[in-house]
Design a protein that fits this description.
CATH superfamily of the largest domain: Crotonobetainyl-coa:carnitine coa-transferase, domain 1
InterPro entries: CoA-transferase_III_domain, CoA-Trfase_fam_III, CoA-Trfase_III_dom3_sf, CoA-Trfase_III_dom_1_sf
GO molecular function: CoA-transferase activity
CATH class of the largest domain: Alpha Beta
Order of helices and strands: EHEEEHEHEHEHHEHHEEHHHHHEHHEEH
Strand content: 15-25%
Keywords: Transferase
Number of domains: 2
Organism: Pollutimonas nitritireducens
Radius of gyration: 25 Å
CATH architecture of the largest domain: 3-Layer(aba) Sandwich
Pfam families: CoA_transf_3
Number of helices: 16
Length: 415
């Protein structure tokens, strides 16, 4: 397979964060997700890993990347999903020479990111107070389960627990009265992703503040998965705060829009959403259901929300008369909002995914090819046009130490 990206080693890097160096002491998902965003934006992300072991995420498989001979490597797809555009150095922070190297790298970095258990890095002298004394301009970001303060700050946080505790599972899934009705976990590590995304945004804002204010100092950023997931409850949280009523589960329906649901056709299911009265009337016309337009139960969105079930049944009875492809073509041509329920393979095979160049292929040091989902950030003047394969553990140790610290190869024992 031919790679369809450029490594850009001999061309000027015009990405927006080119020239920013990030020292990345994060593992697993939330931290690597955030630092990958910074790497996509052009930052030089130096991933510090434990020698001989590396990021635990490397072993979360199968599946594992295949090398040039078609044999499995030690790089899991999980790890590959959040570690592109980084350089890996293997340094043992439990040793003096490892800690000293990290401190020296911190002195030459703009950003320091970690997701250790609260307080753990202080015993190694790698906490914010210690790092900021060496480099007052450092932007230091800690990502944790529950944040640096509060009664749960010492507890570890995992995505499933966060989805449960922050209410996401309570609004996901079928209602209790329906078969199979129970709280349901979202099929992505949403709490990790939200924490990493908020971390990347906060870091960029802190860099801007540092570089545009007279004091030109860095600062400390406290990001928690708990906070991020609660913030991401967005309109559901607002519904509760405004009404005092605990949001219910509506399955595939929307709490405040109707019709908005999964509907069954003769050969499968599709999704239809009507966001306003005009769209609803047009939908009824295209489905040849004129009686619904004048039905008092459906005269406004509020009425349609209250009477969602009989409306769904009426629409579905009509849709069962023909195939998915027929209805999707009809509704799409009428400029109505409808779509198929794709598997991931079907989603990536959609012509829109091809036109947007969603999948990138990059060469891996093992000789294999890493398929990656491209960054969704499309920028005209500073395009994100470089994709480097996720590194193996310690792949760039000698390169980085020689380049930034003038440490000759073989000086630090990482055995």
């Amino acid at each position: 397979m031919q790679t369809d990206t450029q490594d850009g080693q001999n061309t000027k890097d015009n990405r927006p964060l080119a020239g920013i160096r990030v020292l990345d002491l994060t593992r697993v998902f939330s931290g690597p997700w955030g630092t990958q965003i910074l790497g996509d934006l052009g930052a030089d992300v130096i991933k510090v890993e434990q020698p001989g072991r590396g990021d635990d995420q490397r072993r979360l498989g199968p599946p594992f990347l295949l090398d040039g001979d078609g044999c499995p490597t030690e790089e899991s797809s999980y790890y590959l999903s959040v570690n592109r555009n980084k350089r890996s150095v293997a340094l043992d922070i439990k040793t003096k020479e490892g800690r000293d190297a990290v401190l020296k790298l911190a002195g030459k970095s703009d950003v320091f990111v970690e997701n250790f258990k609260v307080g753990n890095l202080s015993k190694y002298g790698l906490d914010y107070e210690s790092i900021s004394r060496i480099n007052p301009r450092i932007i230091y970001c800690s990502i944790s389960g529950y944040g640096q303060t509060g009664p749960r700050s010492s507890q570890m946080g995992y995505d499933t627990v966060m989805q449960a505790m922050c209410g996401l599972m309570s609004v996901t899934g079928k209602p209790d009265e329906e078969p199979g009705g129970e709280p349901l976990k979202v099929g992505l590590v949403m709490s990790d992703m939200m924490a990493g995304t908020y971390a990347a945004m906060a870091i960029q804002a802190a860099l801007y503040a540092r570089d545009t204010r007279d004091e030109a100092r860095g600062q400390y950023i406290d990001i928690s998965m708990f906070d991020a997931q609660l913030a991401a409850m967005s309109h559901q949280a607002s519904h509760y705060l405004v009404s005092g009523k605990t949001p219910a589960r509506f399955g595939n329906g929307a709490p405040s829009v109707s019709p908005s649901n999964v509907f069954t056709c003769s050969d499968g299911k599709i999704v239809i959403v009507s966001g306003n009265d005009a769209q609803f009337r047009r939908l009824c016309e295209m489905l040849d259901l004129p009686t619904l337009i004048d039905d008092i139960r459906y005269q406004s969105n509020s009425f349609r929300v209250i009477n969602r079930q009989p409306l769904k049944e009426a629409i579905e009875e009509r849709l069962r008369s023909n195939k998915k492809s027929y209805w999707l073509a009809l509704l799409t041509n009428a400029n109505l909002v409808a779509g198929p329920i794709n598997t991931l393979s079907e989603a990536l095979a959609d012509p829109q995914a091809g036109a947007r160049e969603i999948v990138k292929h990059v060469k891996h040091i093992s000789g294999g090819i890493v398929p990656l989902i491209a960054s969704p950030m499309r920028m005209s003047a500073t395009p994100l046009d470089r994709y480097l394969a996720p590194p193996t553990c310690g792949q760039h140790t000698e390169e980085v130490l020689a380049e930034l610290l003038d440490i000759p190869p073989g000086t630090i024992n990482n055995a």
